[in-house]
Every structure is written in structure tokens, then in C-alpha cells.
């Protein structure tokens, strides 16, 4: 029997959410494509999975580059080495940095947008293109992954577009999840006093 394949996009620090998801899916029997912008970080996660007896490979990927997203999905859809084609995608990419909104430059905001929104569009579109014809698949997008600078409504809109694209593909079971995080909505001054 072949192992199911998962992509986890947006893997950075070994102790971050992306790495934890990679380890969890590998422990549950998935072959995990560990995708992120920093090769040495994703290779650390792959080594930890291998040491625990799991199956994973590092795939350096910048989610804002359409060609790299396509290459990642091509790899995930290829069968071989006892691995089945892709059935699980997690988009966890984001530029999470603590920057005072009042001090944020237009270039910094655009960088957040490119990763969280544009990258989310590219990955979601590719997931829909690849999974919908198969009539199966799970797509997960932790809402916090877009970074602190983007409104949850923007992320939610893109994520719901993913769901719509997967739902129009015919009579099949589709899994869709959005992980919401608690947001501190107190004024900045109130947060600083606590």
C-alpha cells in the first residue's frame, strides 16, 4: 500500500507551526513535502522526521513564484517510492513580524501581501487544479499564516475561493478547514499596559 502525500508550505523555524504539522502528518503515515524559502531550515525538519522514522523531502519553494509553486505540485502529484499522489495541502506561509503599523512602509506591506495573499492565491489555485479532478483532497490554511499585517477578512476571502473551486468539481467528498486564531483586539495602548 502506498503512503498518502502531503505538502506543508511555509515551513520555517523547526519549532514553528509548519514544522509541527510536518512532523504530525509524517507520524500519521504521510510522505511530507516540506516546502519553505530557507533550504537549511526545511532540511532540518526533514532530518527530524527521518530520525523519527517518517518520510519527507525538502522542496525549497517561494510561494510568490508561480513556476516554483507549479514545480512543487508536479513533484507532489508524481507517484513513486511507495508514495501516492497528493491528497493534503497546508498553506502556512507568512511574513510574521512585529512591526508597528504606523512605521510600516509600503514596500514592507507589499511583501506581506505577496506572501499571504498572492502566494495563497497561487497555492490555492494549483491545489484546486490538481485535487478537484481527483475528487478528493484536503486543503488547510491557518489564518494566522498570512502575517499580522493582513486583515483576516482578506485571508478568509481567498480561502473561501479555494473552497468554492474545490466544491464545483463534482460529486465527491471534499475536506476543507480554516484554522482561526484568537486576535488581541484591544487598542495598542491597552496592550502595552498589561
Structural write-up:
- The protein has 194 residues and is an alpha/beta fold.
- The protein has one domain: 3-Layer(aba) Sandwich (Rossmann fold).
- Helix content is 43%, strand content 20%.
- It contains 6 helices and 6 strands; from the N terminus they run βαβαβαβαβαβα.
- Strands 3-2-1-4-5-6 form a 6-stranded parallel sheet, with helices on both faces.
- α5 links the parallel β5 and β6 (175-179).
- α1 runs parallel beside α2 (39-51), α3 packs parallel to α4 and α4 (106-131) packs parallel to α5.
- The radius of gyration is 17 Å and the shape is globular.
- The protein starts with a strand and ends with a helix.
- Residues 168-194 have low confidence and may be disordered.
Summarize the SSE layout with pairings.
Layout: E1 3-9, H1 17-27, E2 31-36, H2 39-51, E3 55-60, H3 66-77, E4 83-91, H4 106-131, E5 138-142, H5 152-167, E6 175-179, H6 188-193
Helix pairs in contact: 1-2, 3-4, 4-5
Short synopsis of the structure:
It is built from six helices and six strands; from the N terminus they run βαβαβαβαβαβα. The protein has helices at residues 17-27, 39-51, 66-77, 106-131, 152-167, 188-193, and strands spanning 3-9, 31-36, 55-60, 83-91, 138-142, 175-179.
Task: Provide key terms for this protein.
single chain; 194 residues; alpha/beta; Rossmann fold; 6 helices; disordered C terminus
What is the terminal separation in angstroms?
54 Å
Order of helices and strands: EHEHEHEHEHEH
Which CATH architecture is right?
3-Layer(aba) Sandwich
Q: What is the domain tally?
A: 1
Number of H- or I-type helical stretches = 6
Give the overall average pLDDT.
Answer: 79
**CATH homologous superfamily assignment:** NAD(P)-binding Rossmann-like Domain
Lateral arrangement of strands in the main beta sheet: 3-2-1-4-5-6
Q: What structural category do the secondary elements indicate?
A: alpha/beta
The radius of gyration is 17 Å
**General form:** globular
> In percent, how much strand structure appears in the residues?
15-25%
Largest sheet: 6 strands, parallel
| Tally of strands | 6
Amino acid at each position: 500500500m502506498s503512503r498518502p502525500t502531503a505538502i506543508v508550505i511555509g515551513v520555517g523555524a523547526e519549532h514553528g507551526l509548519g514544522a509541527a504539522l510536518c512532523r504530525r502528518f509524517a507520524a500519521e503515515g504521510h510522505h511530507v513535502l516540506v516546502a519553505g524559502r530557507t533550504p537549511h531550515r526545511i532540511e532540518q525538519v526533514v532530518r527530524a522526521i527521518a530520525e523519527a522514522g517518517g518520510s519527507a523531502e525538502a522542496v525549497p519553494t517561494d510561494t510568490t513564484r508561480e513556476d516554483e509553486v507549479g514545480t512543487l505540485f508536479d513533484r507532489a502529484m508524481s507517484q513513486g517510492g511507495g508514495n501516492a499522489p497528493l491528497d493534503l495541502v497546508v498553506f502556512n506561509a507568512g511574513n510574521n513580524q512585529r512591526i508597528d503599523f504606523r512605521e510600516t512602509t509600503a514596500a514592507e506591506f507589499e511583501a506581506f501581501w505577496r506572501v499571504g495573499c498572492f502566494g495563497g492565491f497561487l497555492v490555492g489555485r494549483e491545489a484546486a487544479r490538481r485535487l478537484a479532478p481527483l475528487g478528493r483532497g484536503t486543503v488547510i490554511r491557518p489564518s494566522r499564516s498570512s502575517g499580522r499585517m493582513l486583515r483576516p477578512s482578506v485571508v478568509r476571502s481567498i480561502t473561501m475561493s479555494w473552497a468554492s473551486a474545490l466544491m464545483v468539481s463534482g460529486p465527491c467528498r471534499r475536506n476543507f478547514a480554516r484554522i482561526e486564531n484568537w486576535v488581541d483586539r484591544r487598542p495598542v495602548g491597552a496592550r502595552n499596559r498589561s
